[in-house]
């Protein structure tokens, strides 16, 4: 018998469920798109209705339906949810309002006086854990941002001032456990709703970026991972909480007691690539298959030289928190540019921005890595991965398993269930090296020149966007 794990990867754009065995082989998988966010005034962005739970049930049934092995080989569940979200629940574990997305402005603000029926406030993963197990228990590594979490103890703060600052009294918060610890067992009600066998143990993972890093094999300090997802950031790991520095920030890692150091990022990174693909699909009705559209864009963009003939993109489709006036910008269009130039420019804008952020983080931490790991949806594109190698001037390695977060969730479950004795052994057994992309010396030299211009671009656009913001605020 080979132990298999049901890995739940709750993402920003879809819910993914995989059956992964103890050697890291994906035996079955399914992905169900989430519905578009409900957007509203004052930065409202919520997951409509009960979308996270509903898509989980659909994805689980599809993944289990595609699994050709013995269902009894599936011994445990690893649960990963989207970080920074906020879910308010009643005493029965049901939502009192739709889950607040990490893009919702309210998640960075103290919790306003909750309605009387609110009995629990938790992360998106915490909400799913309550629905699956009936227990008020969540991973300590799922909480970043406006939560009264103590990063050193990985527990809720005991400082009354911190509880008051976040607006979250202790009685509304779940019990916290470490990644790999037991959250509970699937209830009969959850089994009927999702198709997961009743009684299966459910194990804690961490925030989605930390789980993705674990599945990518990021265990050793000094190695940097570029995560190319809806939110794009560079990450590395360590054992100590370093001093405060605006060039990076600190998460809990998926390995208990370790930390994930994270660069500045792009808040709608690969979403921007998807946005452009949808525009092309709308303009060319014969290109309706998203994979075919992406392949067509990538193929044509390979023929476009670095720098796209002076076309540059600032990928601030959702402004960073420290510069709320910013907007996305495409600069330098002329009659020579077509859709392939635009596609490559969006990809280059993402990679050039992340080169700047990554350089800052590495300088702050004293790192000089000789290679770069990549993960997330963007890493599946050979074009984008090669551009990463050419811009950074380093070999770029992507994991063999495309869904690194799903693999990380399975690793946590494998450690919790006892299939592997610890995280190091589990990563060694389940995470494998994939393709390596070597930088092209000519392209790297060209990008060094492009980067020098790109570094000055926001100095010109920021004042313009500030004027637009001021004018909009003034109602004129």
Features:
476 residues, alpha+beta, Nucleotidyltransferase, domain 5, 2 domains, 7-stranded mixed beta sheet, 6-stranded mixed beta sheet, globular
**Unreliable stretches, pLDDT < 50, 5 or more residues?**
none
The description of the largest β-sheet is: 7 strands, mixed
Number of strands: 23
Please indicate the percent range of residues in DSSP E strands (runs of 2 or more): 15-25%
Mean pLDDT: 93
Helix content: 25-40%
Principal-axes geometry comes out as globular
- What would you call the structural class? alpha+beta
CATH top level of the largest domain is Alpha Beta
Number of helices: 12
CATH architecture of the largest domain: 2-Layer Sandwich
The fold-level CATH name of the largest domain is Nucleotidyltransferase, domain 5
Walkthrough of the structure:
- By secondary structure, the protein is α+β, with helices and mostly antiparallel strands.
- It folds into two domains: 201 residues, 2-Layer Sandwich (Nucleotidyltransferase, domain 5), CATH 3.30.420; 232 residues, Nucleotidyltransferase, domain 5.
- It has twelve helices and 23 strands.
- It has a seven-stranded mixed beta sheet with strand order 17-18-16-15-21-22-23, sandwiched between helices. It has a six-stranded mixed beta sheet with strand order 3-2-1-6-14-13, with helices on both faces.
- Helix 6 runs antiparallel to helix 8 and helix 7 packs across helix 8.
- It is globular.
- The protein starts with a strand and ends with a helix.
- The mean pLDDT is 93.
């Amino acid at each position: 018998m080979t132990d298999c794990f049901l890995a739940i990867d709750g993402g920003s754009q879809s819910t993914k469920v995989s059956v992964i065995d103890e050697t890291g082989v994906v035996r079955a998988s399914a992905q169900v798109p989430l519905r578009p966010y409900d957007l509203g005034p004052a930065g409202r962005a919520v997951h409509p209705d009960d979308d996270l739970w509903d898509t989980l049930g659909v994805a689980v049934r599809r993944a289990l339906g595609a699994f050709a092995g013995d269902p009894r080989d599936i011994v445990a569940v690893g649960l990963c949810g989207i970080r920074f979200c906020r879910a308010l629940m009643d005493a029965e574990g049901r939502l009192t309002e739709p889950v607040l997305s990490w893009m919702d402005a309210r998640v960075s603000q103290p919790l306003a006086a909750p309605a009387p029926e609110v009995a629990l406030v938790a992360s998106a993963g915490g909400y799913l854990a309550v629905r699956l197990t009936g227990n008020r228990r969540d991973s300590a590594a799922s909480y970043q941002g406006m939560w009264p979490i103590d990063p050193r103890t990985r527990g809720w703060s005991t400082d009354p001032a911190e509880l008051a600052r976040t607006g979250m009294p202790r009685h509304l918060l779940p019990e916290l456990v470490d990644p790999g610890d037991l959250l509970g067992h699937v209830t009969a009600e959850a089994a009927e709703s999702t198709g997961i066998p009743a009684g299966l143990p459910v194990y804690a993972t961490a925030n989605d970026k930390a789980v993705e890093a674990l599945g990518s094999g990021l265990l050793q300090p000094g190695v940097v991972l570029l995560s190319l997802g809806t939110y794009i950031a560079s990450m590395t790991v360590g054992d100590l909480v370093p001093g405060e520095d605006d060039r990076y920030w600190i998460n809990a890692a998926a390995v208990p007691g370790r930390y994930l150091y994270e660069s500045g990022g792009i808040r709608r990174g690969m979403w921007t690539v998807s946005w452009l693909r949808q525009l092309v699909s709308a303009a060319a009705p014969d290109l309706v298959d998203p994979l075919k559209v992406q392949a067509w864009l990538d193929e044509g963009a390979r023929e476009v030289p670095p720098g796209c003939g002076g076309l540059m993109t600032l990928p601030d489709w959702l402004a960073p928190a420290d510069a709320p006036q910013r907007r996305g910008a495409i600069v330098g269009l002329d009659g020579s540019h077509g859709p392939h130039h635009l596609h490559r420019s969006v990809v280059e804008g993402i990679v050039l921005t992340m080169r700047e952020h990554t350089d800052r983080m590495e300088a702050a931490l004293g790192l000089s890595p000789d290679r770069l790991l990549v993960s997330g949806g963007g890493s599946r594109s050979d074009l984008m991965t090669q551009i990463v190698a050419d811009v950074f001037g380093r070999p770029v390695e992507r994991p063999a398993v495309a869904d690194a977060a799903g693999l990380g969730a399975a690793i946590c479950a494998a450690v919790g269930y006892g299939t592997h004795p610890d995280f190091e052994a589990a990563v060694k057994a389940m995470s494998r090296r994939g393709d390596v992309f070597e930088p092209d010396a000519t392209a790297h030299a060209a990008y060094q020149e492009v980067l020098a211009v790109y570094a000055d671009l926001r100095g010109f656009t920021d004042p313009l966007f500030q004027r637009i913001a001021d004018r909009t605020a003034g109602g004129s």
